[in-house]
Specification:
The chain is built from six helices and no strands. With 137 residues, the protein is mainly α. The protein has one domain. The longest helix is centred in the middle third of the chain and has 28 residues. It is globular.
Amino acid sequence: MNIKRAILFGIMLWVAIFAIISILMFTPGLVDKDFYQFLILWILMIPLVLLLAKWYFRKDAPTTKKGFLLGVIAVLVGTVLDIAITVPFFVKSYSVFYSNVFMYIGIAEGILLATYAGYEFDATYTVASVDDSEIKE
């Protein structure tokens, strides 16, 4: 497991989620509608996490365990960035920020998607190549 690359994965994921949430918070029709903002985020996280995991696993052989650890590292990196940037500059209250149940659903989704990516990419990564002569027989 490449820790530096996993931390970079977590930073890129945090930046993307921060940008998406920032846009959704000011989108007309979604202002003060937390559930719909998070619903859109949860949908957008599917391709986002899978694409970033594809980038991560380009340099590291995928496995389900590595996918799970990648998700956990991303959550830890995101938590550090939220503690250092999001809460002090934008939310102003740790209790308000960390009492949002929708955020925990997104965290679970991120870990599950990273785990799935490790599993799925491992299945395609380790498929034995078939020779044309074997097909004809």
